[in-house]
Specification:
It is globular and about 60 Å long. By secondary structure, it is α/β, with parallel strands linked by helices. Strand 14 and strand 15 form a beta hairpin. It has 2 domains: 337 residues, 3-Layer(aba) Sandwich (Alkaline Phosphatase, subunit A), CATH 3.40.720.10; 104 residues, 2-Layer Sandwich (Arylsulfatase, C-terminal domain). It comes from Roseivirga pacifica.
C-alpha cells in the first residue's frame, strides 16, 4: 500500500512538473535581423577590418554563411518589399525609397511573411525601420504584424539632414508604438538598444507559441548613432562602433533564445538591405572586394552578408556559394512552417534544401537585377554576371565624404554588354563578353523571358505582370 501511494505521489509530481514547464511550440520560430546599408565586408567572417563581430561570427560557426546572397534591389524600400513579399520590387511597382508622407506604400493586398504566418497561428512583431509607406493604411499593423515599435522611414529623413534646406525639407522623425506616434526623435543613440530590448521582451512573452520577429535595425544607415556602451570601442571609428553594437544586439537575441529553451526551435536569419552608401566615406561601410555600392546593380550594391542559424535542422559551420536572393526567404519559410504561399504570383523559390545540404543547385534559372523604375540592368546566371548598357553612379576612385557629409557621385555608362566570371573575378574588372558569346546569348534569352513578364524601361518593353503599389485615396 505504501509503495502504491509513493508511486502515485511520484507520478503526480512528474505530471505537475510537465504541466508547468514551458510549452514548446510545434512550429518553428523565425527571426529575421535586417540591417540598413551594411556592406559585404562589414562582418568579421566576411573580412571586416577595424572592428570585430564575435556574435555574428559565432552565429556563422553554428549555422551557415552565404557568400553569394543578394538583396532584391540596391535601395531601402524596394529591398524591403522584396524581402517581405518574395517578389521582385518592380513587380509590385515599388522602386527607390519612399519619402515621408508618400501617397504610395506596400499595397495591403500583397501578402507579407507576417500575414502568411498569421494564418498558421504565429504571433508577429517588427521592431525598427519599416519604410514601406507611412500612411495609416500602409503601417505594419495593417500588413500582418501584431506589434510595431520603430521609425516609419529612413533615419536621415529628419530636420537634421546635412542637406536640409538645400535639397530636402524634412519634418520631424516620429517614433511609433503600433499605430501611435509616441515620440519625436532628436537623438537616436539608444535606438539600437531599445529595439534589442523590445525583441528580447517579445521572445520572452511568446516563447510558448510560434512567433515571427522582424528586427529591422535603422543602422548603419547615416546618420550614425551608437550608445555610450560602444562609443569609441572600434579602430574603425563611429561606423565600427555602430556595427559592434549591432553585433551585441544579435548576441543578446541568441542568448535569450537559449535562456528560454527555444534555441533549437528557432531559425535566425541575418542580412542587410543593400550595400554601403559609399558617398558618405568614413561613415559608410565596405563592400570589398566587390565593385561599387548602394544604388547600383553591381555586386557591391546588392551582394550582402547573410548568415542562417537553426540548430538541429541546419548543419553548422558550412559556407554556401550557391546564388540566392532575399525574395527566396518567404517561400523558404513557407516550406519550413507548412504555410501556404501567397495567392498572387511571387518570384522567390524555396532554398531550404540548399540550406540543409540536400542540394547545391539553385531553384532559380537566374536572378534579375532591376533598378530605377523598371530597368533590367543585370543578370546573375550560374557563375556569370552580365550587364546591359546602362548608366550607374560611382565615386570614380575618389574618397567619400567626411564627418557625416556626402561626396558627389559622378555617372558612368556601360556602353556595351559586359560579362564577368565571378568565380574568377569577384571584383568585376575583366569583361569577357567577347570571349564567351554563347554565354551572352544564353543570358540574353533568359533576360528576354523576364522582360516579357516584368518589362524593361531600357528597351521600351512594358511589364505585363507588374502590380501597382498601394495609394492613398483622398
Amino acid at each position: 500500500m505504501k509503495n502504491s501511494l509513493l508511486l502515485i505521489v511520484v507520478l503526480f509530481a512528474v505530471y505537475s512538473c510537465q504541466t508547468t514547464t514551458t510549452k514548446t511550440p510545434s512550429k518553428p520560430n523565425v527571426i529575421i535581423i535586417f540591417t540598413d546599408d551594411q556592406g559585404y565586408q562589414d562582418v568579421g567572417s566576411y573580412g571586416a577590418v577595424g572592428f570585430k563581430t564575435p556574435n555574428l561570427d559565432q552565429m556563422a560557426a553554428e549555422g551557415i554563411r552565404l557568400t553569394d546572397f543578394y538583396a532584391a534591389q540596391a535601395v531601402c524600400s524596394a529591398s524591403r518589399a522584396g524581402l517581405l513579399t518574395g517578389c521582385y520590387p518592380n513587380r509590385l511597382g515599388i522602386h527607390g525609397a519612399f519619402m515621408p508622407n508618400s501617397p504610395k506604400g506596400l499595397n495591403p493586398e500583397e501578402t507579407t511573411i507576417a500575414e502568411m504566418l498569421k494564418t498558421e497561428g504565429y504571433k508577429t512583431a517588427i521592431y525598427g525601420k519599416w519604410h514601406l509607406g507611412d500612411a495609416p493604411e500602409f503601417l505594419p499593423t495593417k500588413q500582418g504584424f501584431d506589434e510595431y515599435f520603430g521609425i516609419p522611414f529612413s533615419n536621415d529623413m529628419w530636420p537634421y539632414h546635412p542637406q536640409q534646406g538645400t535639397i530636402f525639407n524634412f519634418g520631424p522623425l516620429p517614433l511609433y508604438e503600433n499605430e501611435n506616434i509616441i515620440d519625436t526623435l532628436t537623438d537616436q543613440s539608444n535606438l539600437t538598444t531599445q529595439i534589442t530590448e523590445r525583441s528580447i521582451q517579445f521572445i520572452q512573452e511568446n516563447k510558448s507559441e510560434p512567433f515571427f520577429l522582424y528586427v529591422a535595425h535603422p543602422q548603419p544607415h547615416v546618420p550614425l548613432f551608437v550608445s555610450d556602451k560602444f562609443k569609441g570601442k572600434s579602430e574603425r571609428g563611429l561606423y565600427g562602433d555602430v556595427i559592434m553594437e549591432i553585433d551585441w544586439s544579435v548576441g543578446e537575441i541568441l542568448k535569450t533564445l537559449k535562456q528560454e529553451g527555444i534555441d533549437e526551435n528557432t531559425m535566425v536569419i541575418f542580412t542587410s538591405d543593400n550595400g554601403p552608401w559609399l558617398a558618405y566615406g568614413e561613415h559608410s561601410g565596405s563592400a570589398l572586394p566587390l565593385r561599387e555600392g548602394k544604388g547600383t546593380a553591381l555586386e557591391g550594391g546588392q551582394r550582402e552578408p547573410a548568415i542562417i542559424r537553426y540548430p538541429g535542422k541546419i548543419n553548422p559551420g558550412r559556407t554556401l556559394q550557391t546564388p540566392m536572393m532575399n525574395i527566396d526567404i518567404l517561400p523558404t519559410i513557407a516550406e519550413l512552417t507548412g504555410a501556404q504561399l501567397p495567392a498572387k504570383n511571387i518570384d522567390g523559390k524555396s532554398v531550404w534544401k540548399i540550406w540543409t545540404g540536400e542540394s547545391n543547385e539553385s531553384p532559380q534559372e537566374a536572378y534579375y537585377f532591376y533598378y530605377h523604375v523598371n530597368e533590367l540592368q543585370g543578370v546573375r546566371y550560374k557563375n556569370w554576371k552580365m550587364y546591359f548598357p546602362h548608366k550607374y553612379r560611382t565615386l570614380g576612385g575618389r574618397e567619400g565624404g567626411k564627418g557625416g557629409l556626402p561626396a558627389d557621385y559622378e555617372y558612368l555608362t556601360f556602353d556595351e554588354i559586359a560579362l564577368y566570371d565571378l568565380s574568377k573575378d569577384i571584383s568585376e574588372t575583366n569583361n569577357v563578353a567577347n570571349e564567351h558569346p554563347d554565354v551572352v546569348e544564353e543570358i540574353k534569352a533568359l533576360a528576354n523571358g523576364m522582360r516579357n513578364k516584368l518589362g524593361d524601361a531600357l528597351t521600351n518593353v512594358e511589364g505585363t505582370e507588374n502590380r501597382a503599389p498601394g495609394m492613398i485615396h483622398k
